[in-house]
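This protein record is not my work; I was only asked to verify it. Would you go through it and say whether the fold makes sense for this chain? Here is the record exactly as it was handed to me.
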Amino acid sequence: MLQQLFRHLCARRPLAIGCMIIGSLLFVLASALQQAAAGNVPLLLLSIVLMVLGVAGQMLGLLALMRGGKH
């Protein structure tokens, strides 16, 4: 499933850019959530999960852009 998504992103450059932007926004949201959590454990765990998803989205989009249309 992840390989299909990667191939789809490689074939469609605007989608890869969108994936990077969404990953960046998730990371910013997670950072703000972590600042607001102030000891609330469920919110801290949610912010960590969002950070991981944000970084994964950024890396997936970046790798797809670097690879380009090559298969």
